[in-house]
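Incident review: delayed structure delivery

Summary: a single-chain prediction request sat in the queue longer than the usual turnaround. Root cause was a stuck worker, restarted by the on-call engineer. No data loss occurred. The affected request and its eventual output are reproduced below so the record is complete for anyone auditing the incident later.

Affected input:
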Amino acid sequence: MHQVSPDRIGGKFIYLILLVSFFAVMATCSVGAGQVADLQKSKQDALAAYKKFTQDYLNDDWTALKKDLLPATLGMRYLTAQEINDIQYIKAAATECRPSWWPQTHSSSNISFRATIWGRSFMANYMPSGMLGVQAPVGIRNGRLMVIVSWQPSLIDNPDPLPGKLAKVHHLTKGNMGEAIVWHELGHNYISVNLPIGQVIQLYEDHLLLYQHLQEFYADMTSLYHGSPKARLALMLLRVPGMRMNDSSDPHVRASLAIGSLILWNVLAHRDQWPSVHLPGKVPATDVARNTILYMYTHLAPQLTFREDRHLREYIGKFIRTRGEAVLRERGTVVLPNGLQFKLMVAEDRQLKITRDNWVKAQLKKLIAAGKTDKPDATKVSSGDKSGKSSGKGSGKKGGGIGGLIGH
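Output delivered after worker restart:
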């Protein structure tokens, strides 16, 4: 019988072990590669769902937002901490933008519903009308000032395009305008829900002009915070004609300039955080702050990025929560983050305006030198009237017309 040497048997055994190990490693690599590919696809799908969810929010597409919530939530394990936080932010913001009582806002009949602004609830007594929007006190009940609010119910959630050049650039609808108006009128209640009735009545009777200016300031701040991204744009652009005409006796104008000053400070101080916001490449010859605000509003990109819109809303919210009542206590004094002041009452604001204009002028010069503004000879298509004058005739306070409010 032929005998095989032990060494030869050992060599074959080692070869067999190596061969088996090789195929095992190859199989493991194949499985590992497959797992890596699956993981990469899961991350891509999660990122796509996140982007779709944020775009739904920016577009005010509430139906799509509700549908896309599940895939966005399921993919959170593959997202960054910031992206996860964004999804949670949108869920909370959407609840504030579209609360359970929202369907009541387009009722064609008188109706009362409990609304909430800035975390405080109150009874809103709504009466439909042909006016763009109005709020008026009607009496006192249980130690609270009773008011009525009114707007055109046909505007609410209306998908028809809003007329005007500014509206066309930003793809705004009549529903976006209607939403801005609803939150504005409800925002008039900031004073009555935050002060004892005695102080509210004293403010109304003894300081009516100041009361009216404060009302408009809180109303617009409420709309900017509680409204949707499109409603925020609608409100800002709604104020352009008034700021151009600059009627210093109009509380809407003074409030919009105060808020514009707050926004302008943030853009100038944190320029790189606002890629969709343009600044003039030449310092305005007069009314530096007001004309820079107008340029900023009328040269916005068609849509703010999600990061910009979130920053704007949180900035407004933080101001009201930390300084909102101080504006009331300090008789309409809005303190900018750099310490400069804006007084809602124009007679008290003249010297402060000079200081603000000088500061804006200095900041603009720095940004122009750094190449962070538009070119002086830019031919960019403005979303507003290049003449600097409003072509809109209606004030929006009475009647049913909304043409002209967003510029032609």
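Verification: The longest strand covers residues 133-141.
Action items: add queue-age alerting; document worker restart procedure.
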